[in-house]
């Protein structure tokens, strides 16, 4: 199960409801620190998605479906 809290004050509020077994703040901060990435685009992730999309296009053609037009949109969220 995944939970996303946009504001830091949400976690204690949800924890106080007692319906979810949530880790303490220090554990979460440690996890976020270990898995944080530098700001910017991940070229590796974009190349992986492009390869997956190319495979998807080929699979559609093999199944007799029309080839997708291969147009896409890249959206940045909360760019500062």
Mean pLDDT: 78
C-alpha-based Rg, rounded? 20 Å
Assign a percent range to the helix content: 40-55%
What about the largest sheet?
A: none
Strand-residue fraction?
A: under 5%
Report the order of strands and helices. HHH
List how many beta strands DSSP finds.
Answer: 0
What is the global morphology?
elongated
What does this structure look like?
Helices cover 48% and strands 0% of the residues. The chain is built from three helices and no strands. It is elongated, with a radius of gyration of 20 Å.
Strand and helix layout:
Layout: H1 10-17, H2 25-34, H3 43-62
In brief:
With 80 residues, this protein is mainly α. It has helices spanning 10-17, 25-34, 43-62.
List its traits:
single chain; about 80 residues; 3 helices
